[in-house]
Design brief:
Blueprint lengths: L4 E4 L6 E2 L1 H14 L8 H5 L4 H12 L5 H18 L2 E2 L3 H10 L4 E5 L3 H10 L8 E4 H4 L7 H9 L7 E5 L2 H9 L3 E5 L7 H7 L2 E3 L2 H11 L2
Parallel strand pairs: 1-4, 1-6, 4-5, 6-7, 7-8
Antiparallel strand pairs: 2-3
Helix pairs in contact: 1-4, 3-4, 4-6, 5-11, 9-10
InterPro entries: HAD-like_sf (IPR036412), HAD-SF_hydro_IA (IPR006439), HAD_2 (IPR041492), HAD_sf (IPR023214), PGP-like_dom2 (IPR023198)
Organism: Mediterraneibacter gnavus (strain ATCC 29149 / DSM 114966 / JCM 6515 / VPI C7-9)
GO molecular function, one term: phosphatase activity
């Protein structure tokens, strides 16, 4: 495995952020003085944002429209990224190690641009990336390889010369099919860990445990 550049995911990989996506609707209801049902996150998980907003309106008899609910939930998410989201343990040290060794790195994410930019600045990791690249900019989600191919192009790497670091199975599968090497990072929000472990070239339970191995032992 000869790696010349690294493509990093944000949510669930570098950022310990997945819980906000599950619990933002709960927090939104609480701001309205409403106690959410215990399994609300599971109920909304397979719904689109619009479907989820409609469910909240119908279930809790909210006197607002879908756009109002979506704006309220987005405010909860934006506040979390601006003030609360943390890096996974060892993430910053790993980025610094790769930077010191001269690897170009790009952050490639499907996340909200403002939220991700604010988090990167507050957590002081923006300096490690030559660029922040968003699915909204390339016009495709991570079920297609567009964002990875664009990141590789910007780093002057072929796909087989770039490492994609992700937490989600579908994103790892997309990158592998496009010819990239892949490293999977454990996140408790993803339930398919055995499949993820089998699919990725490298599997990291945590950054702390395998920092040295990831940098020197497998590359």
């Amino acid at each position: 495995m000869t790696i010349k550049g690294i493509i990093w995911d944000a949510d669930g990989t570098l950022l310990d952020s997945m819980e906000i996506w599950e619990h933002a609707p709960d927090h939104y209801l609480e701001t309205l003085g409403i106690e959410p049902e215990p399994n609300l996150g599971e109920i909304l998980f397979e719904m689109s944002l619009e479907q989820g907003a409609k469910y909240l309106i119908d279930r809790y008899h909210l006197p607002v429209g879908v756009a109002d609910v979506l704006e309220g939930i987005h405010c909860q998410i934006e506040t979390f990224y601006r003030r609360e989201v943390t890096l996974k343990p060892g993430a910053k040290e790993l980025l610094a190690e790769f930077k010191q060794k001269g690897y170009p790195m790009i952050l490639a994410t499907s996340g909200d641009q403002d939220c991700i930019r604010q988090a990167c600045e507050r957590l002081e990791i923006r300096q490690y990336f030559t660029e922040l690249l968003f699915c909204s900019e390339v016009g495709a989600g991570k079920d297609r390889p567009d964002i990875y191919l664009e990141a590789a192009r910007k780093m002057n790497c072929r796909p087989d010369e770039a490492l994609v670091v992700e937490d989600a199975l579908y994103a790892i599968e997309t990158a592998k099919k496009a010819g990239f090497s892949t490293a999977a990072v454990y996140d408790k929000a993803n339930k398919e860990q055995e499949k993820i472990r089998e699919t990725a070239d490298i599997y990291l339970k945590s950054f702390d445990e395998q920092l040295t191995e990831m940098i020197t032992g497998r590359m």
